[in-house]
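Entry 14: structure prediction run for Aminobenzoyl-glutamate transport protein. Input pasted below.
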Amino acid sequence: MDTARTASHEADWFQRSLQWIERIGNKLPHPFALFLGLTLFIALASALLGALDVGTTAPDGERVEVRNILSTAGARMMLSTGVENFMGFGPFGTVLVIMMGVSVATQTGLLQELIKVAVSRVPKRLVTFAVAYMAMVAHVASDAAYVIMIPLGAIAFHLVGRSPVLGMVLAYVSAGAAYNASPLITPADALFSGVTTQAAQTVDEGYFVSPMATYFFTGASSIVMALALTVIAETLIARRVRALGEPPQLPEELLASASRGARPGPAQRKGLIWAGAIMVGYVALLALALAPGGSPLRAADGGLDGAPLFLGIGLLSSIMFIAAGTVYGVVTGTITKVQHQLPELMAHGVREMAPVIVLFLVIAQFVAYFEWTNLAQVISIEGATLLRSLDMPTLLLIAVIIVAVSVLDLLTLGGIAMYSLVALVLVPMLFAVGISPETTQTAYRIGDSITNPTNPMNPYFLMTLAMLQKYFPKAGIGTLASMTVPLAFCAGAVWIVFFLIWIGIGLPLGP
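Run finished. Output C-alpha coordinates:
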Protein backbone atom coordinates (compact mmCIF):
# COMPACT_ATOMS: atom_id res chain seq x y z
CA MET A 1 0.00 0.00 0.00
CA ASP A 2 2.79 2.42 0.96
CA THR A 3 4.66 1.54 -2.21
CA ALA A 4 1.61 2.26 -4.35
CA ARG A 5 1.01 5.53 -2.54
CA THR A 6 4.66 6.54 -3.01
CA ALA A 7 4.57 5.70 -6.74
CA SER A 8 1.34 7.68 -7.12
CA HIS A 9 2.87 10.65 -5.29
CA GLU A 10 5.99 10.55 -7.51
CA ALA A 11 3.85 10.37 -10.64
CA ASP A 12 1.77 13.32 -9.46
CA TRP A 13 4.94 15.25 -8.68
CA PHE A 14 6.25 14.57 -12.18
CA GLN A 15 3.02 15.73 -13.80
CA ARG A 16 3.06 18.88 -11.66
CA SER A 17 6.63 19.50 -12.81
CA LEU A 18 5.53 19.29 -16.45
CA GLN A 19 2.67 21.69 -15.75
CA TRP A 20 5.21 24.06 -14.17
CA ILE A 21 7.37 23.86 -17.34
CA GLU A 22 4.28 24.64 -19.40
CA ARG A 23 3.30 27.66 -17.29
CA ILE A 24 6.82 29.11 -17.30
CA GLY A 25 7.34 28.41 -20.99
CA ASN A 26 4.04 29.97 -21.96
CA LYS A 27 5.10 33.21 -20.30
CA LEU A 28 7.78 33.55 -22.95
CA PRO A 29 6.88 36.01 -25.71
CA HIS A 30 5.88 34.97 -29.22
CA PRO A 31 8.87 33.40 -31.00
CA PHE A 32 9.07 36.37 -33.39
CA ALA A 33 9.38 38.81 -30.46
CA LEU A 34 11.71 36.39 -28.66
CA PHE A 35 14.22 36.38 -31.51
CA LEU A 36 14.00 40.15 -31.88
CA GLY A 37 14.87 40.43 -28.18
CA LEU A 38 17.76 37.98 -28.51
CA THR A 39 19.08 39.88 -31.50
CA LEU A 40 19.02 43.12 -29.49
CA PHE A 41 20.78 41.35 -26.62
CA ILE A 42 23.54 40.16 -28.95
CA ALA A 43 23.98 43.68 -30.28
CA LEU A 44 24.34 45.17 -26.79
CA ALA A 45 26.59 42.34 -25.59
CA SER A 46 28.87 42.71 -28.60
CA ALA A 47 29.15 46.46 -28.01
CA LEU A 48 30.09 45.96 -24.34
CA LEU A 49 32.48 43.04 -24.86
CA GLY A 50 34.00 44.67 -27.93
CA ALA A 51 34.74 47.83 -25.95
CA LEU A 52 36.46 45.68 -23.31
CA ASP A 53 38.53 43.91 -25.99
CA VAL A 54 37.19 40.52 -24.92
CA GLY A 55 38.47 37.65 -27.05
CA THR A 56 40.32 34.36 -27.11
CA THR A 57 43.03 32.54 -29.03
CA ALA A 58 42.04 30.06 -31.74
CA PRO A 59 43.85 26.71 -32.12
CA ASP A 60 45.90 28.13 -35.00
CA GLY A 61 47.20 30.90 -32.73
CA GLU A 62 45.06 33.63 -34.25
CA ARG A 63 43.46 36.12 -31.87
CA VAL A 64 39.65 36.06 -32.06
CA GLU A 65 37.98 39.14 -30.57
CA VAL A 66 34.34 40.04 -30.12
CA ARG A 67 33.24 42.52 -32.81
CA ASN A 68 30.82 45.34 -32.08
CA ILE A 69 27.83 45.01 -34.36
CA LEU A 70 26.69 48.51 -33.42
CA SER A 71 29.77 49.92 -35.16
CA THR A 72 29.96 51.32 -38.68
CA ALA A 73 31.22 47.97 -40.01
CA GLY A 74 28.36 46.18 -38.23
CA ALA A 75 25.75 48.53 -39.69
CA ARG A 76 27.14 47.96 -43.18
CA MET A 77 27.03 44.21 -42.65
CA MET A 78 23.42 44.27 -41.45
CA LEU A 79 22.22 46.39 -44.36
CA SER A 80 24.19 44.63 -47.08
CA THR A 81 23.51 41.04 -46.03
CA GLY A 82 19.98 41.16 -44.60
CA VAL A 83 18.26 39.61 -47.62
CA GLU A 84 21.17 37.25 -48.23
CA ASN A 85 20.98 36.03 -44.62
CA PHE A 86 17.29 35.24 -45.08
CA MET A 87 17.56 33.57 -48.47
CA GLY A 88 20.66 31.62 -47.47
CA PHE A 89 19.31 30.46 -44.12
CA GLY A 90 19.92 26.68 -43.99
CA PRO A 91 16.43 25.30 -43.24
CA PHE A 92 14.68 27.83 -45.50
CA GLY A 93 15.37 26.23 -48.86
CA THR A 94 15.23 22.68 -47.53
CA VAL A 95 11.83 23.18 -45.93
CA LEU A 96 10.30 24.85 -48.97
CA VAL A 97 11.62 22.35 -51.49
CA ILE A 98 10.67 19.34 -49.37
CA MET A 99 7.23 20.74 -48.56
CA MET A 100 6.46 21.14 -52.26
CA GLY A 101 7.08 17.44 -52.78
CA VAL A 102 5.48 16.28 -49.54
CA SER A 103 2.43 18.43 -50.31
CA VAL A 104 1.89 16.64 -53.63
CA ALA A 105 2.22 13.24 -51.96
CA THR A 106 -0.08 14.34 -49.12
CA GLN A 107 -2.77 16.13 -51.13
CA THR A 108 -3.13 13.18 -53.50
CA GLY A 109 -3.41 10.81 -50.53
CA LEU A 110 -0.24 8.81 -51.22
CA LEU A 111 1.52 9.31 -47.90
CA GLN A 112 -1.65 8.70 -45.93
CA GLU A 113 -2.28 5.44 -47.77
CA LEU A 114 1.32 4.34 -47.25
CA ILE A 115 1.02 5.02 -43.54
CA LYS A 116 -2.35 3.26 -43.38
CA VAL A 117 -0.94 0.20 -45.09
CA ALA A 118 2.08 0.19 -42.78
CA VAL A 119 -0.06 0.66 -39.67
CA SER A 120 -2.52 -2.04 -40.78
CA ARG A 121 0.38 -4.49 -40.80
CA VAL A 122 1.73 -3.39 -37.43
CA PRO A 123 -0.07 -4.43 -34.24
CA LYS A 124 -1.57 -1.45 -32.45
CA ARG A 125 0.76 -1.97 -29.51
CA LEU A 126 3.78 -1.54 -31.81
CA VAL A 127 2.75 1.70 -33.54
CA THR A 128 4.77 3.83 -31.10
CA PHE A 129 7.97 1.93 -31.85
CA ALA A 130 7.17 1.95 -35.57
CA VAL A 131 6.88 5.76 -35.65
CA ALA A 132 10.05 6.22 -33.59
CA TYR A 133 12.07 3.85 -35.77
CA MET A 134 10.70 5.33 -39.00
CA ALA A 135 12.17 8.64 -37.82
CA MET A 136 15.58 6.95 -37.52
CA VAL A 137 15.31 5.77 -41.11
CA ALA A 138 14.14 9.22 -42.23
CA HIS A 139 17.41 10.76 -41.01
CA VAL A 140 18.82 9.84 -44.41
CA ALA A 141 16.86 12.85 -45.67
CA SER A 142 18.67 15.20 -43.23
CA ASP A 143 16.44 18.01 -41.94
CA ALA A 144 13.69 16.80 -44.24
CA ALA A 145 13.11 14.07 -41.63
CA TYR A 146 11.30 16.65 -39.50
CA VAL A 147 9.10 17.85 -42.34
CA ILE A 148 8.18 14.31 -43.35
CA MET A 149 7.79 12.61 -39.98
CA ILE A 150 5.87 15.18 -37.91
CA PRO A 151 2.61 14.95 -39.90
CA LEU A 152 3.10 11.23 -40.53
CA GLY A 153 3.40 10.55 -36.81
CA ALA A 154 0.12 12.37 -36.21
CA ILE A 155 -1.63 10.39 -38.95
CA ALA A 156 -0.30 7.03 -37.73
CA PHE A 157 -1.59 7.56 -34.19
CA HIS A 158 -4.93 8.86 -35.44
CA LEU A 159 -5.43 5.72 -37.51
CA VAL A 160 -5.12 3.46 -34.46
CA GLY A 161 -7.47 5.61 -32.41
CA ARG A 162 -4.87 7.46 -30.36
CA SER A 163 -4.06 11.13 -29.94
CA PRO A 164 -2.30 12.51 -33.04
CA VAL A 165 -0.53 14.99 -30.74
CA LEU A 166 1.35 12.13 -29.08
CA GLY A 167 2.33 10.79 -32.51
CA MET A 168 3.42 14.24 -33.68
CA VAL A 169 5.55 14.92 -30.58
CA LEU A 170 7.07 11.43 -30.68
CA ALA A 171 7.99 11.82 -34.35
CA TYR A 172 9.47 15.29 -33.77
CA VAL A 173 11.59 14.23 -30.78
CA SER A 174 12.66 11.00 -32.51
CA ALA A 175 13.81 13.00 -35.52
CA GLY A 176 15.63 15.52 -33.30
CA ALA A 177 16.92 13.90 -30.10
CA ALA A 178 18.22 10.91 -32.06
CA TYR A 179 19.23 12.93 -35.12
CA ASN A 180 22.59 11.18 -35.41
CA ALA A 181 21.22 7.64 -35.03
CA SER A 182 20.23 5.80 -38.19
CA PRO A 183 20.42 2.34 -39.76
CA LEU A 184 21.52 4.09 -42.98
CA ILE A 185 24.47 6.26 -43.94
CA THR A 186 23.27 9.87 -43.83
CA PRO A 187 24.55 13.17 -45.27
CA ALA A 188 25.56 14.19 -41.74
CA ASP A 189 27.93 11.22 -41.58
CA ALA A 190 29.85 12.59 -44.56
CA LEU A 191 29.87 16.17 -43.23
CA PHE A 192 31.08 15.30 -39.73
CA SER A 193 33.66 12.76 -40.87
CA GLY A 194 35.19 15.37 -43.18
CA VAL A 195 35.62 17.87 -40.36
CA THR A 196 36.97 15.17 -38.03
CA THR A 197 39.52 14.10 -40.65
CA GLN A 198 40.73 17.69 -41.02
CA ALA A 199 41.09 18.08 -37.25
CA ALA A 200 42.82 14.71 -36.79
CA GLN A 201 45.33 15.50 -39.52
CA THR A 202 46.67 18.39 -37.46
CA VAL A 203 48.19 15.60 -35.33
CA ASP A 204 48.52 12.73 -37.84
CA GLU A 205 48.73 13.80 -41.49
CA GLY A 206 47.63 10.39 -42.75
CA TYR A 207 44.58 10.00 -40.54
CA PHE A 208 41.24 9.56 -42.33
CA VAL A 209 37.75 9.24 -40.88
CA SER A 210 35.27 7.54 -43.22
CA PRO A 211 31.56 8.40 -43.35
CA MET A 212 31.05 4.79 -42.21
CA ALA A 213 33.49 5.12 -39.32
CA THR A 214 30.73 4.99 -36.69
CA TYR A 215 28.18 2.91 -38.61
CA PHE A 216 28.07 -0.01 -36.15
CA PHE A 217 27.23 2.29 -33.25
CA THR A 218 24.77 4.56 -35.06
CA GLY A 219 22.94 1.55 -36.49
CA ALA A 220 22.62 -0.05 -33.05
CA SER A 221 21.67 3.34 -31.57
CA SER A 222 18.70 3.62 -33.92
CA ILE A 223 17.16 0.52 -32.31
CA VAL A 224 18.08 1.46 -28.74
CA MET A 225 16.76 5.01 -29.11
CA ALA A 226 13.55 3.87 -30.77
CA LEU A 227 12.95 1.50 -27.86
CA ALA A 228 13.80 4.17 -25.26
CA LEU A 229 11.55 6.75 -26.90
CA THR A 230 8.75 4.19 -27.08
CA VAL A 231 8.91 3.35 -23.37
CA ILE A 232 9.18 6.98 -22.26
CA ALA A 233 6.38 8.14 -24.57
CA GLU A 234 4.04 5.43 -23.29
CA THR A 235 4.86 5.80 -19.61
CA LEU A 236 5.31 9.55 -19.24
CA ILE A 237 4.29 11.62 -22.25
CA ALA A 238 0.98 9.85 -22.94
CA ARG A 239 -0.26 11.03 -19.54
CA ARG A 240 0.81 14.58 -20.31
CA VAL A 241 -1.04 14.52 -23.63
CA ARG A 242 -4.19 13.25 -21.92
CA ALA A 243 -3.91 16.09 -19.41
CA LEU A 244 -4.20 18.61 -22.26
CA GLY A 245 -7.84 17.64 -22.80
CA GLU A 246 -9.94 15.64 -25.20
CA PRO A 247 -8.00 13.90 -28.00
CA PRO A 248 -7.92 16.41 -30.88
CA GLN A 249 -8.75 15.65 -34.49
CA LEU A 250 -6.47 15.91 -37.49
CA PRO A 251 -6.57 19.09 -39.58
CA GLU A 252 -9.30 18.93 -42.22
CA GLU A 253 -6.92 18.34 -45.14
CA LEU A 254 -5.61 15.15 -43.48
CA LEU A 255 -8.75 14.01 -41.71
CA ALA A 256 -10.72 13.05 -44.81
CA SER A 257 -8.05 10.85 -46.33
CA ALA A 258 -6.94 9.37 -43.01
CA SER A 259 -10.44 8.27 -42.04
CA ARG A 260 -11.27 6.26 -45.18
CA GLY A 261 -10.28 3.04 -43.46
CA ALA A 262 -7.12 0.99 -43.20
CA ARG A 263 -7.79 -1.06 -46.32
CA PRO A 264 -7.20 0.78 -49.60
CA GLY A 265 -9.73 0.36 -52.39
CA PRO A 266 -8.90 -1.09 -55.81
CA ALA A 267 -7.82 2.27 -57.22
CA GLN A 268 -5.71 3.02 -54.15
CA ARG A 269 -4.04 -0.40 -54.32
CA LYS A 270 -3.21 0.11 -57.97
CA GLY A 271 -1.93 3.61 -57.22
CA LEU A 272 0.26 2.32 -54.39
CA ILE A 273 1.77 -0.33 -56.66
CA TRP A 274 2.63 2.24 -59.34
CA ALA A 275 3.86 4.83 -56.84
CA GLY A 276 5.89 2.19 -55.02
CA ALA A 277 7.46 1.12 -58.30
CA ILE A 278 8.36 4.75 -59.01
CA MET A 279 10.04 5.19 -55.61
CA VAL A 280 11.92 1.89 -55.72
CA GLY A 281 13.03 2.52 -59.30
CA TYR A 282 14.08 6.07 -58.41
CA VAL A 283 16.24 4.90 -55.48
CA ALA A 284 17.70 2.09 -57.61
CA LEU A 285 18.67 4.56 -60.34
CA LEU A 286 20.37 6.81 -57.80
CA ALA A 287 22.27 3.83 -56.42
CA LEU A 288 23.40 2.79 -59.90
CA ALA A 289 24.37 6.36 -60.77
CA LEU A 290 26.40 6.59 -57.56
CA ALA A 291 28.34 3.37 -58.21
CA PRO A 292 30.95 4.60 -60.77
CA GLY A 293 33.95 6.37 -59.28
CA GLY A 294 33.48 9.31 -61.65
CA SER A 295 29.75 9.66 -60.98
CA PRO A 296 28.41 13.22 -60.97
CA LEU A 297 26.67 12.29 -57.72
CA ARG A 298 30.09 11.96 -56.08
CA ALA A 299 32.52 14.70 -55.14
CA ALA A 300 35.18 15.76 -57.64
CA ASP A 301 37.71 13.40 -56.02
CA GLY A 302 35.31 10.47 -56.36
CA GLY A 303 34.54 10.37 -52.64
CA LEU A 304 31.35 10.96 -50.67
CA ASP A 305 32.54 13.89 -48.56
CA GLY A 306 30.64 16.88 -49.94
CA ALA A 307 29.07 14.73 -52.66
CA PRO A 308 26.24 16.37 -54.66
CA LEU A 309 24.05 13.37 -53.73
CA PHE A 310 24.15 14.42 -50.08
CA LEU A 311 24.11 18.15 -50.68
CA GLY A 312 21.06 17.80 -52.91
CA ILE A 313 19.20 15.23 -50.82
CA GLY A 314 16.36 17.69 -50.17
CA LEU A 315 15.76 18.31 -53.88
CA LEU A 316 16.17 14.64 -54.76
CA SER A 317 13.68 13.63 -52.05
CA SER A 318 11.20 16.27 -53.25
CA ILE A 319 11.45 15.02 -56.85
CA MET A 320 10.72 11.49 -55.68
CA PHE A 321 7.63 12.63 -53.73
CA ILE A 322 6.40 14.75 -56.63
CA ALA A 323 6.83 11.91 -59.14
CA ALA A 324 5.28 9.24 -56.92
CA GLY A 325 2.49 11.54 -55.74
CA THR A 326 1.63 12.58 -59.28
CA VAL A 327 1.50 8.99 -60.52
CA TYR A 328 -0.63 8.00 -57.54
CA GLY A 329 -2.96 10.95 -58.13
CA VAL A 330 -3.39 10.15 -61.83
CA VAL A 331 -4.08 6.46 -61.16
CA THR A 332 -6.57 7.15 -58.35
CA GLY A 333 -8.21 10.11 -60.07
CA THR A 334 -7.26 12.79 -57.54
CA ILE A 335 -5.29 14.42 -60.36
CA THR A 336 -7.10 14.82 -63.67
CA LYS A 337 -5.13 17.68 -65.23
CA VAL A 338 -1.49 17.41 -64.27
CA GLN A 339 -0.29 20.68 -65.79
CA HIS A 340 -2.91 22.68 -63.91
CA GLN A 341 -3.18 20.79 -60.62
CA LEU A 342 0.48 19.94 -59.95
CA PRO A 343 1.65 23.57 -59.44
CA GLU A 344 -1.32 24.20 -57.15
CA LEU A 345 -0.56 21.10 -55.08
CA MET A 346 3.04 22.22 -54.71
CA ALA A 347 1.98 25.77 -53.81
CA HIS A 348 -0.26 24.41 -51.06
CA GLY A 349 2.83 23.18 -49.22
CA VAL A 350 4.41 26.64 -49.42
CA ARG A 351 1.26 28.28 -48.05
CA GLU A 352 1.28 25.88 -45.11
CA MET A 353 4.80 27.07 -44.26
CA ALA A 354 4.01 30.81 -44.43
CA PRO A 355 4.04 31.42 -40.63
CA VAL A 356 7.37 29.61 -40.28
CA ILE A 357 8.86 31.51 -43.23
CA VAL A 358 8.07 34.79 -41.47
CA LEU A 359 9.91 33.54 -38.39
CA PHE A 360 12.87 32.48 -40.54
CA LEU A 361 13.37 36.14 -41.48
CA VAL A 362 14.26 37.18 -37.94
CA ILE A 363 15.97 33.88 -36.99
CA ALA A 364 18.31 34.18 -39.97
CA GLN A 365 19.41 37.65 -38.87
CA PHE A 366 19.96 36.44 -35.30
CA VAL A 367 22.21 33.58 -36.45
CA ALA A 368 24.16 35.80 -38.86
CA TYR A 369 24.77 38.50 -36.24
CA PHE A 370 25.82 35.94 -33.64
CA GLU A 371 28.43 34.56 -36.02
CA TRP A 372 29.63 37.98 -37.26
CA THR A 373 30.27 39.26 -33.74
CA ASN A 374 32.48 36.19 -33.06
CA LEU A 375 30.46 35.53 -29.90
CA ALA A 376 29.71 31.98 -31.08
CA GLN A 377 33.37 31.30 -31.82
CA VAL A 378 34.62 32.73 -28.52
CA ILE A 379 32.06 30.73 -26.53
CA SER A 380 32.91 27.51 -28.38
CA ILE A 381 36.68 27.88 -28.07
CA GLU A 382 36.56 28.86 -24.41
CA GLY A 383 34.23 25.96 -23.65
CA ALA A 384 36.59 23.52 -25.34
CA THR A 385 39.57 25.00 -23.49
CA LEU A 386 37.78 24.50 -20.19
CA LEU A 387 37.27 20.82 -21.02
CA ARG A 388 40.99 20.48 -21.77
CA SER A 389 41.83 21.61 -18.24
CA LEU A 390 39.73 18.88 -16.63
CA ASP A 391 41.65 15.88 -15.33
CA MET A 392 39.23 12.97 -15.05
CA PRO A 393 38.71 9.34 -16.14
CA THR A 394 38.11 8.78 -19.86
CA LEU A 395 34.47 7.70 -19.61
CA LEU A 396 33.65 10.58 -17.26
CA LEU A 397 35.40 13.03 -19.60
CA ILE A 398 33.36 11.73 -22.54
CA ALA A 399 30.15 12.12 -20.52
CA VAL A 400 31.12 15.70 -19.60
CA ILE A 401 31.80 16.50 -23.26
CA ILE A 402 28.37 15.20 -24.25
CA VAL A 403 26.64 17.25 -21.57
CA ALA A 404 28.70 20.36 -22.39
CA VAL A 405 27.83 20.09 -26.09
CA SER A 406 24.15 19.74 -25.17
CA VAL A 407 24.32 22.95 -23.12
CA LEU A 408 26.23 24.81 -25.86
CA ASP A 409 23.54 23.70 -28.30
CA LEU A 410 21.01 25.75 -26.36
CA LEU A 411 23.16 28.83 -27.03
CA THR A 412 24.49 28.24 -30.54
CA LEU A 413 22.07 25.77 -32.20
CA GLY A 414 25.07 23.45 -32.62
CA GLY A 415 25.30 21.35 -35.75
CA ILE A 416 28.18 21.13 -38.17
CA ALA A 417 28.90 24.87 -37.78
CA MET A 418 29.74 24.59 -34.09
CA TYR A 419 31.59 21.32 -34.62
CA SER A 420 33.77 23.01 -37.23
CA LEU A 421 34.80 25.50 -34.56
CA VAL A 422 35.41 23.16 -31.62
CA ALA A 423 36.71 20.09 -33.46
CA LEU A 424 40.13 21.67 -34.03
CA VAL A 425 40.49 21.81 -30.23
CA LEU A 426 38.55 18.77 -29.08
CA VAL A 427 39.83 16.18 -31.57
CA PRO A 428 43.61 16.78 -31.14
CA MET A 429 43.21 17.33 -27.39
CA LEU A 430 41.43 14.02 -26.81
CA PHE A 431 43.57 12.22 -29.41
CA ALA A 432 46.59 13.04 -27.26
CA VAL A 433 45.09 11.26 -24.24
CA GLY A 434 44.07 8.15 -26.18
CA ILE A 435 40.53 9.01 -27.25
CA SER A 436 40.12 8.39 -30.98
CA PRO A 437 38.76 11.07 -33.33
CA GLU A 438 35.83 8.78 -34.13
CA THR A 439 34.93 8.59 -30.43
CA THR A 440 35.15 12.36 -30.07
CA GLN A 441 32.96 12.84 -33.13
CA THR A 442 30.37 10.40 -31.78
CA ALA A 443 30.34 12.06 -28.35
CA TYR A 444 29.79 15.44 -29.97
CA ARG A 445 26.99 14.16 -32.19
CA ILE A 446 25.15 12.58 -29.26
CA GLY A 447 25.30 15.83 -27.31
CA ASP A 448 24.40 17.75 -30.44
CA SER A 449 21.23 15.67 -30.84
CA ILE A 450 19.75 15.47 -27.34
CA THR A 451 18.69 19.09 -26.89
CA ASN A 452 17.61 19.59 -30.52
CA PRO A 453 13.87 19.19 -29.94
CA THR A 454 13.88 21.17 -26.66
CA ASN A 455 15.39 24.38 -28.02
CA PRO A 456 12.79 27.06 -28.89
CA MET A 457 15.39 28.57 -31.26
CA ASN A 458 15.27 25.40 -33.37
CA PRO A 459 13.26 26.28 -36.50
CA TYR A 460 11.60 22.87 -36.41
CA PHE A 461 10.48 23.45 -32.83
CA LEU A 462 8.56 26.43 -34.17
CA MET A 463 7.24 24.35 -37.04
CA THR A 464 5.99 21.71 -34.58
CA LEU A 465 4.48 24.40 -32.37
CA ALA A 466 2.57 25.78 -35.34
CA MET A 467 1.15 22.31 -36.01
CA LEU A 468 0.32 21.79 -32.33
CA GLN A 469 -1.65 25.03 -32.37
CA LYS A 470 -3.88 23.55 -35.09
CA TYR A 471 -5.04 21.09 -32.44
CA PHE A 472 -4.84 23.35 -29.37
CA PRO A 473 -4.97 27.02 -30.44
CA LYS A 474 -3.92 28.25 -26.99
CA ALA A 475 -0.80 26.05 -26.87
CA GLY A 476 2.46 27.92 -26.38
CA ILE A 477 6.18 27.21 -26.20
CA GLY A 478 5.73 25.78 -22.72
CA THR A 479 3.00 23.39 -23.83
CA LEU A 480 5.29 21.79 -26.36
CA ALA A 481 8.33 21.94 -24.05
CA SER A 482 6.43 20.10 -21.31
CA MET A 483 6.34 17.11 -23.66
CA THR A 484 9.62 17.41 -25.56
CA VAL A 485 11.89 18.09 -22.57
CA PRO A 486 11.22 14.89 -20.57
CA LEU A 487 11.03 12.75 -23.71
CA ALA A 488 14.31 14.06 -25.15
CA PHE A 489 16.27 14.19 -21.90
CA CYS A 490 15.25 10.74 -20.67
CA ALA A 491 15.99 9.15 -24.04
CA GLY A 492 19.25 11.11 -24.19
CA ALA A 493 20.31 9.71 -20.82
CA VAL A 494 19.74 6.19 -22.17
CA TRP A 495 21.84 7.01 -25.24
CA ILE A 496 24.73 8.35 -23.13
CA VAL A 497 24.77 5.25 -20.95
CA PHE A 498 24.62 3.02 -24.03
CA PHE A 499 27.59 4.86 -25.57
CA LEU A 500 29.66 4.66 -22.39
CA ILE A 501 29.00 0.91 -22.13
CA TRP A 502 29.92 0.50 -25.81
CA ILE A 503 33.21 2.34 -25.30
CA GLY A 504 33.85 0.73 -21.92
CA ILE A 505 33.79 -2.83 -23.31
CA GLY A 506 35.81 -1.85 -26.36
CA LEU A 507 33.36 -2.48 -29.19
CA PRO A 508 34.36 -0.94 -32.53
CA LEU A 509 32.32 2.09 -33.59
CA GLY A 510 32.40 1.12 -37.24
CA PRO A 511 34.21 -0.87 -39.92
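Notes: Residues 1-11 have pLDDT under 50 and may be disordered. Will compare against the previous run tomorrow.
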